[in-house]
Design a protein that fits this description.
Blueprint: E1 2-6, H1 10-22, E2 27-31, H2 44-48, H3 63-68, E3 71-74, E4 77-83, E5 88-93, E6 98-103, E7 106-109, E8 113-115, E9 128-129, H4 133-144, E10 151-155, H5 159-170, E11 174-179, H6 191-203, E12 207-210, E13 214-219, E14 225-230, E15 234-236, E16 239-242, E17 246-248, E18 279-281, E19 288-290, E20 295-297, H7 302-314, E21 330-334, E22 337-343, H8 346-349, E23 356-364, E24 378-386, E25 392-399, H9 407-415, H10 420-424, H11 440-455
Parallel strand pairs: 1-2, 1-7, 2-3, 7-18, 9-16, 10-11, 10-16, 11-12
Antiparallel strand pairs: 4-5, 5-6, 8-17, 13-14, 14-15, 19-20, 21-22, 22-25, 23-24, 24-25
Pfam family, one: Pyr_redox_dim
Family: Belongs to the class-III pyridine nucleotide-disulfide oxidoreductase family.
Cofactor: FAD
Length: 456
């Protein structure tokens, strides 16, 4: 059996690793358009801020390490066509500008996603770019140490936007974030959290221009960007980073015959199988099942991609395991704050057919006789649950102390249909140097139970 895997990031890496283990007699080949495999894009911020000193460390595998495991690795090789009838992919050797067809018995597509850009005047000016992948990580790092770069405009206040804004801020640049939405990271956090984070960003000198629509980029006589114009103002810019989302990298599959969904998403079933029984897909080009509602949703997270890559590889020969539902569990840090989220939040509730309630609680991490200098800190928490059943649908956590790992408890609670009453009495340890007699998750659930009882 010959197994081909297109793409080498999270989903592709897990797919080849699992396929090599699952089918020891098979031939496994991987195709990567770049010159290195398995780049860890979610580690870019650590590189930009100097926590990781070399961009080449942001790889969890190399061509040599995969080759030693029996994987045929083709780098600088673009896959630009699929013929499901003849079971071949069309590839282009970018280094030698030669093309050929590669045949397969089973194919796993993990092409990932591309950074979206704004189709506005000036989009092709120099120093207007994005932040995705190894090449753009290097380009942004170079700009951070360039003394000629003083003003940086970030278009987009999502996860990527605030990460790169913080990195440029710490590099001593004047940073402005512009977003058409009225607050930052609304996909992940409700306003009780974003209000605090916005104040924090401004305290650190980042300018926020929210509720503004970028209209055009203006350049100087040398073709370099010099200004960003929105519907409400104009801002000097030596560098512009567009962080306006991603789109599936699937345009090359338009004539493949595979069933595609909206915005270029590849349709897959619970086994990561496409509309063709010998073609599977995983990663940011596919949808996942959302645990709170059991409905398909697009969530481009590395954790989802890796699970999908494993699932696809295990099901190549027969239906072995279904891809589990996910809750979009994630965490991030912004200056002194660390925050995490899983599942549904209050801002999502109106879009759902479920009847929900949400509760916000502020508590201290430890008993109040433990001082802040001794490690105590405020903990901000919010939970969303289903009215009637009390089923936990999601939660958000934030503190200056790192409590982000606790969001994994919420993810398990969502997947197992745990209720607020159950979490309210769940067994967690107590030690004053660590927490209250009731863990903060107990306290959050207890507040939800009280709210729910008073509403009935």
């Amino acid at each position: 059996m010959r197994i081909l895997v297109v793409g080498s990031s999270h989903a592709g890496y897990e797919a080849v690793k699992t396929a090599r283990q699952q089918y020891p007699d098979a031939t496994v080949a991987m195709f990567e358009e770049g010159d290195k495999v398995s780049f860890l894009s979610c580690g870019i911020q650590s590189y930009l801020e100097g926590i990781t000193d070399n961009v080449n460390k942001l790889h969890y595998a190399s061509k040599d390490s995969l080759s030693k495991k029996g994987v045929d690795v083709y780098v600088q090789t673009q896959v630009d066509g699929l013929d499901v009838k003849n079971k071949t992919i069309h590839v282009v050797d970018l280094k030698h500008q030669q093309d050929r067809n590669e045949s397969y018995d089973k194919l796993i597509l993990a092409p990932g996603a591309l950074a979206s850009t704004l189709p506005i005047p000036g989009h092709d000016l120099k120093n207007v770019g994005v932040l995705r992948g190894r090449d753009w990580a290097i380009k942004n790092k170079e700009k951070m140490v360039d003394p000629k770069v003083k003003n940086v405009v970030i278009v987009g206040g999502g996860y990527i936007g605030i990460e790169v804004a913080e990195a440029y801020n710490k590099a001593g640049k004047n940073v402005t974030i512009i977003d058409v939405l009225p607050r930052i990271i609304p996909t992940y956090l409700d306003e009780e959290f974003t209000d605090i984070l916005e104040d924090t960003m401004m305290t650190h000198g980042i300018k926020l221009r929210l509720g503004e629509d970028v209209q055009k980029f203006i350049g100087d006589e040398d073709g370099n960007v010099s200004e960003v114009v929105s519907n409400k103002g104009s801002y000097p810019a030596d560098v512009v980073v567009q962080a306006v989302g991603v789109k599936p990298n699937t345009k090359w599959l338009d004539d493949s015959g595979l069933a595609m969904g909206k915005k270029g998403v590849i349709n897959v079933d619970a086994y990561q199988r496409t509309s063709n029984p010998d073609v599977f897909a995983a990663g940011d080009a596919t949808m996942v099942t959302y645990a709170p509602t059991d409905e398909p949703i697009y969530i481009a997270l590395a954790s989802n991609s890796r699970r999908q890559g494993v699932t696809a590889a295990k099901n190549l020969v027969k239906e072995t395991v279904k891809m589990p539902s996910v809750s979009g569990t994630s965490a991030l840090a912004m200056f002194e704050y660390k925050y995490a989220t899983s599942g549904m939040k209050e801002a999502d509730a109106a879009k759902s057919s479920l009847k929900t309630r949400s509760i916000f609680v502020r508590e201290t991490l430890r008993p109040r006789f433990i001082s802040e200098t001794a490690g105590n800190a405020d903990v901000y928490m919010k939970m969303t649950y289903e009215v009637g059943t009390g089923r936990i649908l999601g939660a958000q956590l934030m503190s200056k102390h790192d409590i982000t790992m606790s969001i994994n408890v919420i993810s398990v609670a969502i997947s197992t249909h745990m209720t607020i009453d159950q979490l309210a009495m769940q067994d967690f340890f107590f030690q004053p140097n660590f927490d209250h007699p009731w863990n903060y998750l107990n306290i959050l659930a207890q507040a939800a139970v009280k709210q729910n009882n008073e509403a009935e």
